[in-house]
Design goal:
Blueprint (H helix, E strand, L loop, with lengths): L6 E6 L2 H4 L8 H16 L3 E6 L7 H6 L4 H25 L4 E5 L8 E2 L2 H9 L3 E5 L9 H12 L3 E6 L9 H9 L4 E5 L4 H6 L6 E2 L2
Parallel strand pairs: 1-2, 1-6, 2-5, 3-4, 3-5, 6-7
Antiparallel strand pairs: 7-8
Helix pairs in contact: 2-4, 6-7
């Protein structure tokens, strides 16, 4: 099976890990995502994954309701790490080689993000999950995806969401994508959709 891309960054909405649940992590939904990621890695695609955390906590919503913005953003970053741990576990159960790296260092659960190590993992055929956002408040997960894509020299960013309506891209992420000539494609996640995109089918909407 032919893959159009060699190195891809997948921006994964946290809501996809919740499956049919209103919030939290659904092991079944996470397993299904891991299976598809494993199929992509088996094609020889070097894949980085940036998970969101909206299924657990949304820092912007908390700030709108009175929480300090910086506090809310850090909690949101921790939510992406929780999703990253769950996805990494699911990938391991699928025998898919993977590594979890976090921008907020916590050695007992993941590697700290180091670009050189990330590139080594990708070159060895391991999926790399980039969790913890950028490690700084005031930056969205979209910006994290654009930043990591630029750092690993990804050819494209695919942003997977449950519904494409209202799924905008923040200005910082757009600027990073334009500056580094990285196309970003928004698509509604359904079983098999990501695999079709990797093969070159036009199923999404260009955001950058």
């Amino acid at each position: 099976m032919f893959a159009k891309y060699k190195r891809v960054l997948l921006r994964l909405s946290g809501d996809l890990l919740a499956g049919a649940r209103d919030s939290g992590i659904d092991p079944s939904a996470t397993e299904n995502l891991a299976k598809e990621i494993g199929e992509i890695v088996d094609l020889g695609v070097e894949l980085g994954v940036v998970p969101g955390g909206g299924n657990i906590f949304r820092g912007s919503s908390a700030a709108a309701n009175g929480m300090d913005r910086v506090t809310g953003d850090y909690i949101g970053m921790l939510a992406t790490i929780m999703n990253g741990i769950a996805l990494h576990d699911a990938l391991e159960k699928q025998d898919c080689p993977a590594r979890l790296q976090t921008a907020i260092f916590m050695d007992s659960v993941a590697e700290g993000y180091i670009r050189k190590k990330a590139l080594q993992h990708l070159n060895k055929g391991r999926a790399v999950i980039f969790a913890g956002g950028t490690g700084n408040p005031f930056f969205t997960t979209d910006t994290t995806a654009a930043l990591r894509a630029a750092e690993i020299k990804a050819e494209v960013i695919f942003k997977a969401v449950p519904e494409t309506s209202g799924a905008a891209l923040d200005a910082s992420a757009q600027a990073l994508c334009r500056e580094n000539n990285i196309p970003l494609i928004l698509f509604k996640y359904e079983p098999g959709a990501l695999l079709k995109l990797i093969k070159g089918e036009n199923l999404g909407t260009a955001l950058a």
